[in-house]
Amino acid sequence: MNYAAPIAAVLVLGGLLGGAVWFSRLSAKAEKTRSEARDLADANATTATAVAMTNAALNAAPTDAALDARLEAGTA
User: Fold this and answer.
1) SS3 label, residue 47
2) Cβ–Cβ under 8 Å, residues 56 and 49
3) Strand, helix or coil at 2?
4) Is the CB of residue 70 less than 8 Å from the CB of residue 62?
5) Is 2 left (phi over 0), alpha (psi -120 to 50) or beta?
6) How far apart are CA 29 and CA 32, in angstroms?
7) Who's near 22: CB < 8 A, 6+ residues apart?
8) 38-72 burial by CB neighbour count: b if 16+ within 10 A, else e?
9) Global confidence as pTM
10) Cα dihedral angle (47, 53, 54, 58), rounded to 10 degrees?
């Protein structure tokens, strides 16, 4: 009896299944990396917005000297 053909078929099918599992894991890892990159970009955008809003508030706040001058002039 010739066992070469069934053994070859099992090896080929095993290789195909192993390749499919490997590719599936690779795809999942790539999706996780993309998701983490997206989350990081969102966090950086939120931080940049908060920094810009803080800077705008600090720039809009009157300095001590300006506030003193307005108090002396009676316009504060």
Assistant:
1) helix
2) no
3) coil
4) yes
5) beta
6) 5
7) none
8) eeeeeeeeeeeeeeeeeeeeeeeeeeeeeeeeeee
9) 0.54
10) 160
Matching residue, tokens 């908060």: 50
CB 76 within 8 A of CB 68: no
**Residues, the chain, total?**
76
Structure tokens at 74: 């009676």
Q: pLDDT tens digits, residue range 12-68?
A: 999 999 999 999 999 999 999 999 999 999 999 999 999 999 988 888 776 777 777
* CA 29 to mean position of chain CA atoms: 14
